[in-house]
Amino acid sequence: MESKKINYDKVNDDHKPILITHQNGKPAITLSLEDFQTYEETAYLMRVLWKNPQIGKLCECYELSGHLNVFKTR
């Protein structure tokens, strides 16, 4: 069985994770460090918002007014 080589430049340039599968193991993904750090930061901010209802309400008001979209992606 021939394994495919991952083009890491493409992972960084396209900002799309690559799914890695194999017959006898769990699947995994490869993504750029920049994207991983973005996901980590977003998860942290969402935890902070979840724990503080006042901040969550403020963000919701800004989002409804069209000045902020917390969930907007690239």
TrEMBL record:
InterPro entries: Antitoxin_Phd/YefM (IPR006442), YefM-like_sf (IPR036165)
Cited SUPFAM superfamilies: YefM-like (SSF143120)
Matches recorded under Gene3D superfamilies: YefM-like domain (3.40.1620.10)
Domain of life, per lineage: Bacteria
Homology family: Belongs to the phD/YefM antitoxin family.
Function: Antitoxin component of a type II toxin-antitoxin (TA) system.
Stated name of the protein: Antitoxin
